[in-house]
């Protein structure tokens, strides 16, 4: 009986139905060093660490967090793409049912990661007890990784799984018990875990960061449907743990914001923890790079197959927060985090009046593949990129590749093959708002230059914790304790540290309150998986935004997948559906 439950909880969805992706799960190398039949320690932890990127896949946990918040929307593009059973439409409008595939795939990947961490723990513990120092260090990392995955479970489904032996039935904890369990797991390793193996592996700084997150959100986790009561004690713990990281001197803010999301970001001094995609662990795709981008856009001239998917766009509501903050000034000019212009269009080509795909044969500029880099940040208006000829090859010129205004070649809209991709603000579920071109796009992550084909095998780490978040958590804890001056100093330190482009370095704020801090977290951490939790903690998850009017507080948590409940049905009362579903 117990084995059946274990399969139900940790083995559902070994083959997942991913849109625009392969149907089979990638095989993760047995060793972090890539030596094939790995030695015990590396072979134990590689599957657990390798699973982290699968958890944060765009059609798993990342997509669930992103689309459920007010910062992103994924319509049924042109009535042809990205419907996927309605899972993204339901997630955005908060009308999710227990059978929603996005919820189901997210649950499967998180629980699978918990299972892999536990399997590693069972291999490593006897080795550590026998005096193997390397195994002991890896054991601490796996305990922390299991706690981190359980914190994702608590954040999204309001429960955690407590289990020390894989053959036994998990104990399900909620509320205070769940918080205490996760806290005890982190505290059991924080003083003994490594301090230098990151960012691809969990370090002491990452554990401090997890403890800060746990204490910051504990009031929500304790009472997910009520009004959070932020205790002074927990805010003090947030300040303590963030101080440990900041005062360590081991990390510093990146002067260029978008360097945080480049090929070489593993060595960026701001990065504390991420999903390492380099080397032999480099079996992941650039989905955080290409998911949002236009399907007609090719960001790598050396790779004719590298394109976008016309996936999610930012909502008009989230864009408006930038406009409101900077008044009459274009956010692209006022804030280095909003936009980075890599493509300098020659002045004589910028005016497209009277220019159409039918008469623009000479309306291009030349750029080598090595020098070509698309713009980054929030992408608006007409985009430029390489163009293919009738044979499917990119058109060349003396200087490399011809860079044209991009023609709308995807979808079935009125602009297909007759107009340029012109990203407009409107994006919604209406026939007009769901056209492939609609919505401003997010190009935060670089298309990896180490990839053999642009889209696959990215070497860019997925950023899961960085120093700016640490400062913003400390600012929030200070503000909730009444230390406005301290909070303002931390927020301004983050804002004014993006100095690589001085003309776009945001100016220091003159005052701070919870609304401004919520806004600032949105500006700094947009599309990194924080917004849903932030909205809940700051009291904005029941607000109305594009295509979302639901105000049911029970929808702060996602439903437990019906397949998981059905799989546990032979133990009455073991896995009960969350309220409101």
UniProtKB/TrEMBL annotation:
GO CC terms in record: cell outer membrane
Keywords annotated in UniProt: Cell outer membrane, Membrane, Signal
Keyword DNA-binding: no
Family: Belongs to the SusD family.
Domain spans labelled RagB/SusD: 436-549
Cited InterPro entries: SusD_RagB_dom, TPR-like_helical_dom_sf
Location within or outside the cell: Cell outer membrane
Gene3D superfamilies per record: 1.25.40.390
Stated name of the protein: RagB/SusD domain-containing protein
């Amino acid at each position: 009986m117990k084995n059946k439950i274990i399969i139900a909880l940790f083995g559902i969805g070994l083959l997942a139905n991913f849109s625009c992706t392969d149907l089979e799960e990638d095989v993760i190398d047995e060793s972090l060093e890539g030596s094939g039949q790995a030695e015990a320690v590396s072979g134990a932890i590689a599957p657990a660490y390798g699973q982290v990127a699968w958890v944060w896949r765009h059609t798993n946990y990342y997509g669930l967090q992103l689309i459920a918040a007010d910062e992103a929307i994924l319509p049924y593009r042109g009535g042809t793409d990205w419907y996927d059973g309605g899972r993204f439409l339901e997630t955005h409008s908060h009308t999710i049912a227990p059978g929603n595939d996005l919820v189901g795939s997210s649950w499967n990947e998180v629980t699978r990661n918990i299972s892999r961490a536990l399997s590693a723990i069972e291999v490593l513990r006897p080795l550590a007890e026998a005096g193997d120092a390397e195994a002991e260090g890896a054991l601490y990392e796996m305990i922390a990784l299991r706690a981190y995955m359980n914190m994702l479970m608590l954040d999204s489904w309001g429960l955690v799984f407590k289990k020390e032996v894989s053959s036994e039935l998990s104990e399900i904890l909620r509320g205070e018990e769940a918080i205490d369990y996760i806290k005890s797991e982190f505290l059991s390793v924080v003083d003994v875990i490594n301090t230098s193996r990151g960012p691809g592996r969990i370090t002491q700084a990452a554990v401090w960061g997890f403890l800060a997150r746990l204490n910051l959100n504990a009031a929500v986790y304790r009472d997910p449907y009520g009004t959070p009561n932020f205790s002074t004690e927990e805010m003090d713990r947030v300040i303590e743990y963030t101080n440990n990281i900041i005062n360590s001197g081991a990390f510093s803010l990146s002067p260029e914001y978008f360097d945080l999301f480049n090929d070489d970001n593993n060595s960026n001094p701001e990065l504390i923890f991420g999903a390492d995609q380099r080397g032999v662990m480099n079996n992941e795709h650039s989905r955080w790079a290409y998911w949002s981008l236009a399907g007609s856009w090719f960001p790598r001239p050396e790779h004719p197959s590298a394109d976008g998917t016309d996936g999610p766009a930012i909502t008009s509501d989230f864009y408006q927060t930038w406009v409101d903050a900077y008044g009459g000034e274009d956010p692209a000019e006022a804030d280095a985090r909003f936009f980075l212009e890599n493509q300098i269009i020659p002045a004589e080509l910028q005016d497209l009046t009277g220019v159409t795909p039918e008469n623009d044969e000479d309306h291009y500029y030349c750029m080598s593949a090595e020098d070509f880099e698309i713009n980054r940040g929030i992408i608006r208006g007409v985009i430029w990129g390489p163009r293919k000829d009738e044979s499917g090859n990119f058109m060349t010129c003396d200087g490399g590749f011809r860079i044209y205004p991009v023609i709308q070649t995807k979808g079935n809209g009125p602009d297909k093959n007759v107009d340029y991709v012109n990203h407009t603000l409107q994006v919604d579920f209406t026939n007009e708002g769901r056209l492939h071109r609609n919505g401003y796009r997010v190009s935060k992550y670089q298309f990896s230059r180490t990839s053999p084909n642009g889209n696959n095998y990215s070497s860019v780490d997925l950023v899961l914790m960085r120093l700016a978040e640490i400062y913003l958590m400390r600012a929030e804890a200070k503000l909730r304790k009444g230390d406005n001056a301290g909070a303002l100093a931390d927020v301004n330190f983050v804002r004014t540290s993006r100095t690589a482009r001085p003309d776009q370095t945001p100016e220091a704020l003159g005052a701070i309150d919870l609304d401004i801090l919520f806004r600032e977290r949105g500006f700094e951490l947009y599309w990194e998986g924080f917004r849903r939790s932030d909205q809940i903690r700051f009291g904005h998850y029941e607000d109305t935004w594009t295509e979302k009017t639901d105000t049911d507080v029970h929808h702060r948590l996602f439903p437990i997948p019906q397949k998981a409940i059905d799989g546990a049905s032979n133990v009455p009362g073991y896995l009960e559906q969350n309220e409101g579903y």
